[in-house]
Amino acid sequence: MALSSSNTYPDQTAKDETIGFGRKLKIAIIGTGGIANAHIGAYKKMPDVEIVAGADLIPGKAEAFFKKHGLEGVRCYNSDAELFASEHDLDGVSICTYNCQHAPCAIHALDAGVNVMLEKPFTVTTEEAVEVMRAEKRSGKILTIGFQPRFDLNMQMIKKICESGELGKIYYIQTGGGRRRGIPTPSGTTFIQKDTAGIGALGDIGCYSLDMVLNAIGYPRPLTVTGFKSDYFGKNPATYVGRGHPEYADVFGVDDFAAAFIRLEGDIFLDFRISWAMNMDTPGDTIILGTKAGLRIPSTDCWNGTVGGPMKIYHEVAGEQVETVIPIIEDRSGMTLFDKKIRSFLDAIIDPSKGAPVPSSQILYNQAIIDGIAKSDAAGREIRIEIPEI
After folding, report:
1. Element (DSSP H or E) covering residue 257
2. Is the link from the previous residue into 59 a cis peptide, with omega within 30 of 0?
3. How would you write 47-67 as a 3-class SS string?
4. Is residue 144 helix, strand or coil?
5. What is the CATH number of the domain that holds 319?
6. What is the pTM of this model?
7. 50 and 117 fall within a common domain
């Protein structure tokens, strides 16, 4: 079975270094921590890009970041506000800050008339996501959210299967995943502190799991949620002893495990669980049940942008129960998922009629579920998911 990528490597589409615009696209990067390395690595492969500016709250960090990546002459600032006050001809910006700064930085960029690649999770709360989308609407600029698994051919096959009608009416989905031990503290505590991260496993990898299935079925509106989250491992000093930082337990302020039951429009029930740490190797494969067939998607040890092995459709042929194996699809485009994510953003800047590759109107529902899980847990009951008008 073959499924070709809709994205090609830039060198195959560009005869020179000025695709579409007649000049290079001027790009800035805000936040120069770990994920920014993947962004700059992808931008450097694009022949029609010039990285001209960057910002980080820690003095000197942005300068060191660009120097490490071999870029000279990049103008550096100590805040996004300083950057947008000084840079007036940017075409796009990658926002790679910690979660709690996603919303303010995205709003500042859009209000400055700059197209935005916003790393996941979209925001911390639904209300923040709505405010970002209002800025998007005011500006008329591109806002895309950083979900690179969308560009994996196997993920695209899941959507293709669901849209084909092969499964019949989809009525139940089980999804999730995560890690037995994998609280992300290799370079500090910004992922685990409440005032910087806001949310933990839910936002870090839970958003990917939700997007995999919600995108496949057309992103129906979430209606209600019963949510649970915990921090048993994050709050335990023993978790960090091997890393030499038992004090991390004192500042851990987010979730390391979460689970929920979500009712979606179309009479679909979603059973979700996600983990940074638990006493289990996996909370289970992803299962999509329909009236004609069911689809099993093997789990992965950690979210890596694809599926954990060949998928399988359980259905009937001539009255007999059979299984159809969907082989792993190999991507021969020569592009990484991050390359594709960044290229799709640039292509949307060049031709806004393409629209955002991962539109905020979809990821708003993703964010509303994540936020709803947290709010349900705090309330100790099922809650209705309320999404304000944009």
Report:
1. strand 257-264
2. no
3. CCEEEEEEECCCCCHHHHHHH
4. strand
5. 3.30.360.10
6. 0.93
7. yes
